[in-house]
Amino acid sequence: MEQQKFRTSFGLIRRLLIVFTTGFPDQNFLGAFYIPFLLQSISPKFRKNLALNLLFISPHYYGTLPPNIRRQDFIEAEHQGMLLSRESMIERKVKPHLNQNMIVLDHGCGPGYLASAVSRYCNRVIAVDISSGVIACAKAINGKPNIEYITESGTHLSQVENSSIDLIYSFAVMQHVTDDVCQQILQEFFRVLKPQGKIICEFVVDLQNTGNASINKQILNPFVKKIKERYILRVLGRPFPKIEKFILDSGLEIAKVTANKFDPGEEKSKDAELYYTFVLTKP
Ligand SMILES: C[S@@+](CC[C@H](N)C(=O)[O-])C[C@H]1O[C@@H](n2cnc3c(N)ncnc32)[C@H](O)[C@@H]1O
């Protein structure tokens, strides 16, 4: 009973922490300005552990603490699970397209598990995220000499030069951005990719083609909607024709589309077939 009470209050604390650590614009979890300073000012001995605990606050990376498991054990298990699942995703979905000379862009890199796995198979990785806090966590947990972690605005890749990237991948990101942002990102992918370069990009597909983009229930109250958009993770599905239009409008071409198969620990909805991986090319 006592333990249950403690867990309920910890759940509330976690929600409060989400509020205090979210930055601008909306959905920029761990984007509060002070997170990178916090990580920099702590002794390197404790930095990785603090980063793992910060990741636990964000709704993006680790799950909800189950009953009867110590928080620290849970965080360590989630960390190990992410290492394995992201390694496996790279092996299956990205490695076949890689070679040791390539410069690779990891879009929406989060804590850098994917970037770390990819860095072994290419020359250099530029890993980009909207959240300066998660970039600081990535440096602490998955820092490697050939990975450059950078924070960008969410719509532009201002620090990446035209036609400079051999391969871009983006997993578990497009479902969190609005249509406008999705279109701008695809245009930026086109700009920074070398001709004949490839993009491996995951989308959540709304198979019923309802035209209603949101998997989350539509909320009518504008105040609740605003709060939810700011502090609760948004997940959007899009009908195939809409995704196809966004891709073709950006100048990219679709080479292949596959329904995802999932490994334990990999991000999935109850309808796993909703997640699709698109291979795109720049003609
Ligand atoms: C679910 S996490 C996935 C992280 C990583 N791609 C992975 O699969 O392990 C989604 C990430 O996308 C980032 N993100 C959301 N919107 C973004 C945007 N417009 N530009 C860049 N990153 C974005 C979030 O901050 C978060 O780190």
What overall form do the CA principal axes indicate?
globular
- Rg, Å, rounded: 19 Å
Q: Between the first and last Cα atoms, what is the distance in angstroms? A: 62 Å
Name the CATH homologous superfamily. Answer: Vaccinia Virus protein VP39
Q: Let me know the number of strands.
A: 7
Mean pLDDT: 91
Which structural class is indicated by helix and strand composition? alpha/beta
Stretches where pLDDT falls below 50 for ≥5 residues? none
Element pattern in H and E: HHHHEHEHEEHEHHEE
Work out the count of structural domains. 1
| Tally of alpha and pi helices | 9
CATH class: Alpha Beta
Ligand names: S-adenosylmethionine
Major sheet, described briefly? Answer: 7 strands, mixed
Strand line-up of the largest beta sheet: 3-2-1-4-5-7-6
CATH topology: Rossmann fold
Q: Helicity range of the residues? A: 40-55%
